Request: fold
Amino acid sequence: MKVIGIVGSPRKNGNTDTLVQEALEGAKEAGHTVKKYNLNTMKYSGCQACQYCKTHNGCRLNDDVSQLMHDMTTADAVVFGAPIYYMQFSGQFRLFVDRFYQFLNPDFSVKLPKGKKAIIIGSQGNPDPKTFDAVYKNLDGVLKMNGFNVVGELRMSAGNPPSAVKEREDLLAEARGLGKNL
Reply:
């Protein structure tokens, strides 16, 4: 099984990055092939609304996200990770999600192969894990609209310090377990 991880955080080795890496380590332990993308180090643009993808296979933009989108089409599972900033997932992540438009046909049927699994990992400074339920529900809906089966979700709350997760063995184990059970 091919599993890719996508980190939508600007903090390398921060809470989100660490949790996505743990999920990928779990997937690796289960014998899966893994690859990780860090959106913050990539050069890319959002959807240009040009409709090219409606008559062609893929997006007309040829940037760093192009390979990631290709890998999403061939992956069996994807671990999506992003922090919540100002009641939304990070800007890097939202810009990337806009490019999912290329996975929809003009009639909004899905171009992606069926049966892909998804894990959603988020981190937030707010100590109440339910504060941003709508953010997770929205991403869940986007993924389901694109044919993903969301098989797990992990929410880290009270995660303001970039290394807070390193003291949360429960979350590290949960992330690893999610990856292992793909």
Remarks:
- The radius of gyration is 16 Å.
- The mean pLDDT is 96.
